[in-house]
From TrEMBL:
Pfam families: DUF6151. This is CENP-V/GFA domain-containing protein. Gene3D superfamilies: glutathione-dependent formaldehyde- activating enzyme (gfa). InterPro entries: DUF6151, Mss4-like_sf.
Length: 256
């Protein structure tokens, strides 16, 4: 969307460009120091049996969604999430400045996002307060709760592309639950060159995350899923997007 897509916008459009990455090869010294094979003991088996159910439970968890004031509520099927990433692009930061609420950006100006299949998201209350904006006439749709300006997620303008990037600021779950379901924060980071403080790049994570998103989008397309959470049956967005002016966008970018 738009003349140029960045960060999770690239993922939203399904246009993840290959990145140059260096693959680390195993050296003979590493192989020599590898842990030798041994037969599992009863203590090992007991430990495995005690940890496996917790892992399965975490992955089967339905993550509740909630705006800051509690008017808008929903849920996410964690099994349909594509990955998790922190985006440091100027667009995401401008959007957070537009909302003007705390807890969206980290110390380096990044937004914690969980890309997922739109069919995995269900809004259960307060849908009349759900609205959206866009940073440009052709930009992605950025949904939020108008009652308290809590960010919800980003979607393409075309609902036929099964993607929603949920902002974890609307997750009504403890951090450890979110980490167990989607992996730790900052495992994948995007657009580090736009961060307001030094951030370690994750080129391999970026590539792996992009491939997972493409695979998830393909599966959703094969299932002929429709983005029902933020679009009606005819494919129209639930709300007409508020497209901010170029001057407003420039001011927001300079503020962050």
């Amino acid at each position: 969307m738009g003349s140029r897509l960045r960060g999770n916008d690239e993922w939203a459009a399904g246009q993840v460009a290959p990145r140059r990455v260096r693959l680390l090869s195993m050296t003979s010294a590493t192989a020599a120091t590898a842990t030798p094979f041994r037969v599992a003991t009863p203590a090992d088996r007991a430990q495995w049996s005690s940890t496996e159910p917790a892992t399965r439970t975490a992955m089967d968890t339905t993550i509740p969604l909630r705006c800051r004031c509690g008017t808008v509520k929903g849920e996410l099927d964690a099994r349909r999430a594509y990955t998790r990433a922190t985006c440091y692009c100027k667009d995401c930061r401008a959007y957070a400045r537009f909302l003007g609420v705390p807890g969206v950006l980290d110390a380096a100006g990044g937004t914690d996002v969980v890309p997922a299949a739109p069919a995995a998201v269900r809004l259960t209350a307060g849908t009349e307060h759900v609205t959206c904006m866009s940073l440009s006439p052709k930009g992605i749709l950025r949904w939020y709760a108008a009652c308290c300006r809590t960010p919800l997620g980003n979607t393409p303008r075309d609902p036929k592309l099964p993607y929603v990037g949920l902002v974890t600021a609307c997750f009504d779950a403890p951090p450890q639950t979110v980490d167990a379901a989607f992996g730790p924060r900052d495992r994948i980071v995007l657009n580090t060159q736009s961060a307001t403080a030094p951030v370690r790049a994750t080129p391999l994570g970026f590539l792996a995350g992009g491939l997972r998103i493409l695979a998830g989008i393909l599966r959703a397309k094969l299932r002929r899923e429709r983005a029902t959470s933020f679009f009606d049956a005819a494919g129209r967005p639930l709300r007409e997007p508020d497209v901010i002016s170029r001057e407003t966008r420039t001011a927001l970018e300079r503020a962050g």
